[in-house]
Design brief:
2 copies of one chain form a homodimer. Helix content of chain A is 20%, strand content 30%. In chain A, a hairpin with an 8-residue loop joins strand 2 and strand 3. Chain A contains 5 helices and 10 strands. Chain A folds into 2 domains: 102 residues, Alpha-Beta Plaits; 135 residues, Alpha-Beta Plaits (2-Layer Sandwich), CATH 3.30.70.660. Chain A is α+β, with helices and mostly antiparallel strands. Chains A and B meet through strand 4 of A and strand 4 of B.
Chain lengths: 255, 255
Amino acid sequence: MQKRVRLIVAYDGTNYHGWQLQNNGITIESELNRCLTELLQEPIEVTGASRTDAGVHALGNVAVFDTQSRIPAEKISYALNMRLPEDIRIQKSEEIAPDWHPRYCDSRKTYEYRIYRGEFSLPTKRLYSLFTYHKPDVARMQEAAKYFVGEHDFKSFCQVGAQVKSTVRRVTEVKIYEEDADLVIRVTGEGFLYNMVRIMVGTLLEVGLGKREPWQIQEILAAKNREAAGPTAPAHGLTLIKYEFLQEKTGCLEK
Amino acid sequence: MQKRVRLIVAYDGTNYHGWQLQNNGITIESELNRCLTELLQEPIEVTGASRTDAGVHALGNVAVFDTQSRIPAEKISYALNMRLPEDIRIQKSEEIAPDWHPRYCDSRKTYEYRIYRGEFSLPTKRLYSLFTYHKPDVARMQEAAKYFVGEHDFKSFCQVGAQVKSTVRRVTEVKIYEEDADLVIRVTGEGFLYNMVRIMVGTLLEVGLGKREPWQIQEILAAKNREAAGPTAPAHGLTLIKYEFLQEKTGCLEK
């Protein structure tokens, strides 16, 4: 009896060439396929929810696969973690409807970008946050962030060359707060374009440093041109925190 | 004109054989000596405050050295950080009295031990905290921790074979608190024996898991025998947070 299994996948992206299979280089997807194929003794290819870039981390990315295995779905996490390298850890495994697909289900995901503001970088934070000795103005960034919330054409915040039918996306929340010397930017949305959060962060930092005014976010959105926005913030400060699926267990059809 | 320079040193201990010079393996001390010697064009040997073990991290270890260099002491941090590997970062450099010695000055230091309690380990926390799927009882640990505060003979909490004149030490505070899924143990004291904090943590965890009673810490201290205490907790959960020196700038004589 075939069943579909859903995995919640956490990883430290430092040593991977991102999520997606590549000809050169080890990826999260290639490690999952390799270890699942060994464990279940049948060829397994996972389908991921978010194809995170090289260097981006995750606490809760999502993948599904189909298997004939008689191992109970909820036990696969334990067995798979014994085989995976220590920088990838399944947080949960469970059976899901046979037509449930992580990219065709309505979902909301939350990313966190972390910035460490110090005079010098801190070695124990270097892999998971962007270091800056600048002191961006948090209130200006918070003001600018409001313009991102809602449904907008985010074409200016999408890497040139990304192939998508539409560049309209809905951002439901942008929270910016301080945690000791860290500045944390949490973005929740129903979908993101390629590099969208990192370009939002790069632009928000320019606002924080006085290079742009908060209200100019509106202008940048209206320009629908990548060159209107700020730089793409480095990958290692970004972590995919969680997915929330609106059809949690039932199937969802390809749209 | 010779001057003495004090460094505040932060590092990720993951890739080092501890602080102290060794015949085999790179250490924090060997990297500081190598980079300072290159930078200042004279042979430099630093003296460290705390010789942390392999795998232990630091936000604020302390080192001093003497130099003939005309580079202002407070600029050395910038120049040295350009040469050091990215997992070692000087947080501050400053001139200090010529007879100031980090191990002969009265000081208070604070260590933090971090435990991540989850069903599975979290890759982005794996280098800086101990993972456990157990759920130790925090209140029991807090009760046990009180017995450590004050001046005691900590012989039971010292690795066998450590060469010290006295095993009496003063612990001024032990704070145990929860931070989301992390359990944090902060120990402040005027001096620590070899592996003392790690053995305290290993013993506190046994109390938290019901293997020992809180009041038995008294018995363990009274035994003055390493075998009476619990296991040595792994190095990677431990970070040396800070030093406070009572004679901050003036000299302090060898005792």
